[in-house]
Write a structure and sequence with these properties.
Helix content: 25-40%
Number of strands: 21
Strand content: 15-25%
CATH superfamily of the largest domain: CoaB-like
CATH topology of the largest domain: Rossmann fold
Radius of gyration: 24 Å
Structural class: alpha/beta
Shape: globular
Bound molecules: cytidine-5'-triphosphate
Amino acid sequence: MSLIGKNIVIGVCGSIAAYKIATLVRLLTKEGAKVKVLMTHEATHFITPLTLSTLSNNPVFVDYFDEKTGEWNNHVHIGLEADILLFAPLTANTLGKLANGLCDNLLTAVYLSAKCPVFYAPAMDLDMWKHPSTIRNISSLNSYGNIMIPPGEGELASGLIGEGRLAEPAEILSHLTSFFENGDALKGKTALVTAGPTHEAIDPVRFIGNHSSGKMGYAIAQRLKELGATVTLISGPTALEHPQGVDTIAVTSAQEMFEKTEACFEQSDIIVMSAAVADYTPQTVADQKIKKKEDTFSIDMKKTIDILATLGKRKRDNQVLIGFALETNNELENAKAKLVKKNLDFIVLNSMQDIGAGFAKDTNKITIITQNGKEQVFALKSKMEVAKDICQIIVEHLAKS
Ligand code: CTP
C-alpha cells in the first residue's frame, strides 16, 4: 500500500472524461491516499463537485474565493501540502495555460506554486492531440519535469477513433503507485540503454533499416529514471519524444551507435541493449543517388560490429548487461545461445510467434532468461508494464550482488 497517507491533489478540467475521476478518487482513497480535488468551472458541467467531495471526503475547490464561507482558498497551501499534483483529465486549453505560465484560475495557480512532482493525463480529441501546438505544449511540460500519463487509443467522444482518450483510472493509479514504490531503488546507479533501429546508408537518399519503433527501449529508459538511476539513452532514428530527465543521444548507423555506446560503457552500472541493430551495412556508400539501370540490383554488404558481444567481453562483475533476442523460431534455444555467446546477465526474449509482441506495437510479451538458465515467462502487457518487469529483475539482481 504505497499510497497510504499520501496527499494527492487532482486538478479536473472540462472534458467528458471527467466522469472517470469519480472512479479514480475511489481507487486512490481505497489505497489509503488523502485526496483533494480542484476543478475548473467547465469541469463542473461534466461531474458535480458534490460527487467528488463525497468520494474524496474533502471539500472540492473551484474558485479562489468561497462566497458562502467567505474563505480564501490558499493555493500556495494546497500546492505545498501535496505529495503529488495530478491533472486529469488535462484538456488542450489547460495544457496550453500550464505550458505558458498563465494563471487565471485556481488550478493554474496551484500548478505554478506546487513544489511536488506533477503528473498529467491528457484527454482530447484526435485532431487536437495531433495539433502542433499540443505537441509543443506537451514537450514544454516534459521539459519542466512534469510526468505524462499517456492517453490511450480507442473510440473518442467525438466518434473518431485514435489516440487521445484519458488513461483508465486503474492505469493512472498504477503510475502513481509505482512512482512511490521503489522510488529510489536505483539511486546512485548509472544506466545505459540503446533503442530503436539503425539506418545504414546506401546513397544520399536511401538506407537499409528495420521496423523497430524504439518504444520498448524508451519505456525501459523512462522506468530506470523513475527508479532513481542516471540514464543515458542512445537512440536510433525514431518518432518518439525523448523521455524526460534522460540524456538522449541520437545516432543513425550501427557504427555510430557502437561509438556512443562504447564511450558510455565504462561508467555504466546497468546496460540494456534493446536496439535492433543492423547486422550488415553496405560495403560502400554511393556519393550520388544511384540511378535506375539494370533489371536486378544487388548491394555488397559487410558485417557490422556486434555491440553487445563486444561489450560482453569487457563486462566487469559489478555491471549488469542485458540483451534482447527477437526470434521467429527455436526461440528459447537461440536466446540461450546468445546469452552465453554475448556474456550477458539476462536476455529478454521476444517471440514473433506471440500475438501482440514485437516491433512497433504498444504491447509486448517477454521471457527473461538468466545465466543459470532460469526462464521467467510474462503475460502480454503494455511496453511500460514490461519495462517495469525488466527493471524489477535488475533491482533484485543488484540487491543480491
Ligand atoms: N546487437 C548488437 N549489435 C549488433 C546486433 C545485435 O548490439 N550488431 C544486440 C541487440 O541490441 C540485441 C542482441 O544483440 O540486444 C540480439 O540481437 P539479435 O538481432 O536478436 O541477434 P543477433 O546477434 O544479431 O543474431 P541474429 O540476427 O542472427 O539472430
